[in-house]
Design brief:
Helix content is 8%, strand content 30%. The protein has 158 residues and is mainly β. It folds into two domains: 1-46 and 84-123, Elongation Factor Tu (Ef-tu), domain 3; 51-83, no CATH class. A six-stranded antiparallel β-barrel has the order 1-2-7-6-3-8. The protein has a two-stranded antiparallel sheet with strand order 4-5. Strand 1 and strand 2 (18-23) form a beta hairpin. The longest helix is centred in the middle third of the chain and has 4 residues, at 52-55. It is globular. One of its GO terms (molecular function) is methyltransferase activity.
């Protein structure tokens, strides 16, 4: 097996509570053509969980009410996983290619979180019109837009 080399292309920063992606200078030209897309997929690194203990977690106590008590890591969005990779989809609010800045509607990452890749959200490849989920999460919102107004406090155990 080949060694994998993952290099951050930028980082998440918060400016006046507004989430931004700040790209490293060598990657800024890769923004060309992104300006027509409304949403972006952000692959980021759970750097706070990049340690041997977190990477060895394969089962977790469920963070969700009404779910099984224990879930495999791959059935959760837990930061503790063999490779601490996260994926967020967010609305693009603005792009400044010269400064390497993408303004976002939201992201569930911390300030200075490493960003490892970006991909445009394209409905023909990324949208599933009739996804199936387990009964314990079937009442959750069916879209990113519906999630914004959803009361998540009754979903999580923390």
């Amino acid at each position: 097996m080949n060694n994998l080399i993952v290099k951050p292309v930028g980082k998440v920063v918060f400016q006046n509570e507004m989430p931004l992606i700040l790209l490293e200078k060598p990657y800024r030209s890769a923004l060309e053509g992104l300006d027509g897309f409304s949403h972006i997929q952000i692959f980021w690194w759970f750097d706070a969980c990049d340690n041997e203990a977190s990477r060895s977690v394969l089962k977790v106590s469920s963070p969700y009410r009404n779910s099984p008590e224990t879930l495999g890591t791959f059935a959760t969005r837990s930061p503790e996983r063999p490779n601490p990779v996260a994926l967020s989809t967010a609305q693009i609010l603005r792009i400044d290619p010269a400064a390497g800045i993408i303004g976002l509607s939201h992201i569930d990452a911390r300030d200075n979180t490493p960003v490892i890749d970006l991909k445009p959200y394209t409905p023909s490849l990324d949208r599933v019109t009739q996804p199936c989920v387990p009964d314990w999460c079937a009442s959750w919102p069916k879209s990113l837009e519906e999630s914004a107004d959803f009361d998540w406090s009754g979903v999580f155990t923390f």
